[in-house]
Amino acid sequence: MMHPNDFPQMTPQFDQRVRAALESLPERLCRTRRFPWKRVVSIGCAAALCIGGTAFAAGVSGGFPLLFPNGTDAPLTDYVAASEPGTLTDENDQYRLSVESVLFDESAGVGIVSLHLQNKSGDGVMPFAVIELLPEYQNQPDLVWSNLSECCAVQDGQYNFSVMYGEYGFCGSRFYLDKSRSTENDYYLEGAFIPSGDYSAGTPLRLVMQEQGREQVVSNGASIGLVALEVPLPEFQRMPSYTSADRAVTLSQIGLRITSQQTGDIIVDAVGYIAVKMRDGSVVVITDQANHIDRTLYALGFGADAGFDYEAAVYVLARTFDLADVQAVVINDTEYPLSA
Question: Transmembrane region positions (predicted)?
Fold first, then answer.
């Protein structure tokens, strides 16, 4: 029986592929922590999956029915930039990529985006793979990501999705396939993304689809995956946020940002417990490693090793908050009262 903290056996071919992918990345360092308990991802990826065509119910959701099911993103509706069909689109001979909705909160530095990819050839070949979790981590009620199907490219000719800024700035991100809405030639995905510390306020963002196994060289001499399609993301509306008196903690309706001037700390690894304390006395646990709770969609850490003069940990939350009802954020054993 495999222990949850053991890696599956890694093949030489997989190791070679990972090393090649890492070597092709631009020279920009950041730490990313997707899974709070390591070694939960199976090396194998799904070659096929059952997908059906459940219609998207207008008015039920704020625009992200996969990441926020049952309309739980309705409070975000006023801040979501939704496109008219065919307006935010790029295409080539094989695929048509369209952005449906996007939400970006600049105060916490987090965003979510929904997209539609159409296979114009109609051959039913899915242009990406879907990651499989180890069985003991699938469909766990307190692990939000255990109910999602993450997409990635694992072989040449497949595609990854990313959000970029500037010529070669990349956001950390994870994209998930909505199986209920997708069909064999139409794929609906939703992604959570976080710009790194070199992002400047107001910089335009764009969604890109990059081909595995092919590269292009940018102006600083770095090689990145070949951008096959790209769609500029629409301008976003500023969202409200609450901060602590020392500005170390920022909470918005979809994001949490923790910063420290002590660059020796690796915040994203040191934080084991996060909770939001409400004014009515109730407590909403966001992450609790000791009790296997993780209600975030994605987490990213960056700091001194990437050239910044501070450390930061940023989280895309899997639930929304009415900030007027929030009193404080608890991080590990420290409570941070918040105000507008």
Answer: 40-68
